């Protein structure tokens, strides 16, 4: 009798797990420079106006949640004449100037085919934030393009969404 009840409970648990999961709603965003596939159940896509004429593409993916802060991934493509090391030095200089309590945690070789990776923390508008940024420069015939992917989260929620970010990055491809 106990064995039958255990089997029934196990079946209920498995059924609940299977039917409680949302089906993925995959969409693909394609630009002139890259393509990325994302799950609309997790990510909300938005465009931003380029802050300068050198920025040729910028898109943001925000995590759909209710915690009061929109954890997000931004993808920026920018024309540059700098090498990857020069670009990194400039990036770090700008971050130190613009982020209160800037603290560089990691500066390392990148992942997902990106040359460089930095992880840092700081305070913006009273929010304690943590960032992971991947940077690469692709040399072109006419100009070089910098690809910058930045994950931003509240410091205490950073690890919560990291797997979702990794899933998103796995579906990012340069053209």
Description of the structure:
There is one protein chain. The chain is of the alpha+beta class. The chain has one domain: Protein Transport Mog1p, Chain A (3-Layer(aba) Sandwich). It has three helices and ten strands; from the N terminus they run αβββββαββββαβ. It has helices spanning about 1-20, 85-100, 160-170; strands at about 25-30, 35-40, 45, 55-65, 70-80, 100-110, 115-125, 125-140, 145-155, 170-175. The chain has a seven-stranded antiparallel beta sheet with strand order 3-4-5-9-8-7-6, with helices on one face. Strands 1-2-10 form a three-stranded antiparallel beta sheet.
What is the gist of this entry?
With 175 residues, this protein is α+β, with helices and mostly antiparallel strands. The protein has three helices and ten strands, in the order H-E-E-E-E-E-H-E-E-E-E-H-E.
């Amino acid at each position: 009798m106990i064995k039958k009840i255990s089997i029934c409970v196990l079946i209920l648990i498995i059924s609940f797990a299977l039917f409680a999961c949302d089906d993925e709603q995959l969409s693909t965003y394609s630009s002139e420079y890259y393509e990325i596939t994302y799950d609309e159940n997790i990510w909300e896509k938005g465009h931003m106006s380029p802050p300068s004429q050198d920025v040729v593409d910028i898109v943001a993916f925000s995590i759909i949640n209710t915690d009061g802060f929109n954890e997000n991934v931004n993808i920026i493509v920018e024309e540059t004449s700098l090498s990857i090391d020069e670009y990194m030095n400039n990036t770090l200089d700008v971050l130190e100037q613009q982020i209160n309590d800037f603290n560089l945690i990691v500066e390392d070789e990148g992942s997902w085919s990106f040359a460089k990776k930095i992880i840092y923390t700081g305070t913006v508008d009273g929010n304690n934030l943590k960032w992971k940024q991947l940077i690469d420069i692709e040399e072109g015939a006419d100009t070089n393009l910098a690809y910058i992917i930045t994950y931003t989260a509240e410091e205490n929620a950073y690890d919560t969404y990291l797997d979702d970010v990794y899933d998103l990055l796995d579906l990012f491809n340069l053209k």
